[in-house]
Amino acid sequence: MTAHMPARAAKSSEPFDSDYYDRYYGSAQTRVHSAAEVAKLCTAVVSFIEWWQHPLETVLDVGAGVGLWRDWFTKKRPGVAYRSTEYSAHACREYGHEQRDITKWRAKEQFDLVVCQGVLPYVDDAGAAKAIENLAAMTSGFLYLEAITKRDLREVCDGTRTDVKVHERTGAWYRSRLSKHYIEVGCGIWCKKDANVLFYELEAR
């Protein structure tokens, strides 16, 4: 739900209901990404973390959707402790996630990797700022974040597949808040400042 976020389904008494998931995540004709495509993303993110030699024993997936990250970890890294949360009541029932609102909730423990894909554009500025604080509090190593920006909506997103009814914010808005806690290392990957990871000069900004 980021640079190629799916269009919003018809109005329902429950946000992100079964019709939404069936159409925008199930159908090969209308879904944003296939499981194989998301698997490539998972491989890339985890490979970078391993390249930087940081432990990867625990993962928190915020806004886990249909559970594609969980599928990848189950198959490729079965020893990693994976925890998933979702705002959608339907997704929680169907895919076994904990129902949580990241604007209000944070776990007591920290995780080597926190994944937050396509969540923040759906909440207002105050909620997104609070969510970033919660994500940072739960990150001991790395954050993978996808959040479409005003520029993405104008230049990148496919309007026939993208839910454009989101809160439009600049990349600078996100970076100014994330940079309080993280080092940006590119491709949506952010490293917690106190994680003691060494980067080559041109790997991080």
Short description:
34% of the residues lie in helices and 18% in strands.
Q: Could you describe the 3D structure shown?
A:
By secondary structure, the chain is of the alpha/beta class. The protein contains 7 helices and 7 strands. It has a 7-stranded mixed sheet with strand order 3-2-1-4-5-7-6.
Please specify the SSE layout and strand pairing.
Elements: H1 18-26, H2 35-51, E1 58-62, H3 68-76, E2 81-86, H4 89-95, E3 98-99, E4 111-117, H5 125-138, E5 139-146, H6 150-155, H7 171-178, E6 182-186, E7 189-192
Parallel strand pairs: 1-2, 1-4, 2-3, 4-5
Antiparallel strand pairs: 5-7, 6-7
Helix pairs in contact: 2-3
By secondary-structure content and strand pairing, the structural class works out as: alpha/beta
Weakly predicted, low-confidence segments: 1-12
Distance between the termini: 25 Å
Which range best describes the helical content: under 10%, 10-25%, 25-40%, 40-55%, 55-70% or over 70%? 25-40%
What letter string, H or E per element, gives the SSE order? HHEHEHEEHEHHEE
